[in-house]
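Entry for the shared binder. Reason: the reviewer on the internal report wants the predicted structure included alongside the sequence.
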Amino acid sequence: MSALCINGENRRVKSFLFLIGCVLAGSLPHCIESTKSLFPAITLAIFLGFYAIKVVFSSSEKFPDCIVFNEQENQKELPSVDILVSARDEEAVVGRLVQRLFEIRYPQTKIKICVINDGSQDSTPLILKELNQQFSDLKVVNRSREMGGGKSGALNHALKELNGKWVFVLDADAGFSEDILLRLIPFANEGNWSAVQLRKAVVNSQKNLLTRCQAMEMAMDTVIQQGRQAMGGVVELRGNGALLNRKSLDQCGGFNEDTVTDDLDLSFRLLISGFFVGILWDLPVEEEGVETLNALIRQRKRWAEGGLQRFFDYWPLLISNRIKISQKLDLAVFFLLQYALPVISFVDLLASILTKTIPAYFPLSIIAFSVSGLAYFRGCRLRVNDGPPIPNPNLINLFLAIIYLSHWFFIIPLVTLRMAFRAKTLVWAKTIHKGN
């Protein structure tokens, strides 16, 4: 394994130091004159707001088009691709997924479809066994639940038996077009990307308010990612719909089994190793949005923990000369907005209640929500969309989606507290897929 395979030592200490820093930043303004208490927030708001708004407007309105390969005329030019799916207790969706995978238009000699039964305790193993009889080319890898490592461990386990030039990672609930590889592979080659992340589209966006907000959130995320890419910043993988160059993946040490978010961790491994990640709008990968508040909180707690873990694990390399100045600036801005601001704002609110003063960081929070609203609008108003419909960014939807984002201001502080005071427990909490 690569030297980048950091084992996550002292995460509890690093989390505690991060928490202390946020507590001091959130409470100290309430110890000084009220006329000066807003100065730190206003200064940060100007700096972070300028950068973040520039990111949103740097995202091109005309997203790059895919080049479609003619599979009959150019079969020799198409590289080999391994499609990997980690399935743990996915009886509701795994059958439909395998059917879809074998409908993909790509030369049969250059594609391998591998589904890892990662210790499933439902009928997933039986379904895969039956599918294996129907599709003889389906490779099923059975892995014990006790082997650990979560999704990363499952993917690493399967990679030992595969040697394609590209690895395409999908979740068990993924939906996609039949020509997905014929459009994705040329895009990756043309851009000289070591990895490409597809836009995630919520297939059940019309189910309820929660799924509608998630659909808007995914559009917003892609706009921000494209803007960060345009400004020389950092593009992050999102797991489902990630195309990876196998050579680059191996040089990074594979997937980190000591994290709860394999995709976010791998994004930093690629970055530190000097590899580039591309983001693609017009070839979405569909997935289910969670439909209940409890499921959302469970999912976001894992995302928040994994997001913080990677910063704590890789920070010495992130400030080294391996990273360009533009990338360091980008990481600093989004670390402050995504992770530090929610904790500081929570402390700031408590301090304002105790001292009977106004919150000191409200200008920064206003900037954060305003930038999100702009990104929502730019992402949702684009009518070029191959996937499920994106909610219209009218005033009501924008208002509700911005309110929805406030859940991070509770999730991030909660996860930070847990990471700082509780012993490390690495539990990969999967999202339940219904297959409706």
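Summary line for the report: The first helix runs from residue 11 to 27.
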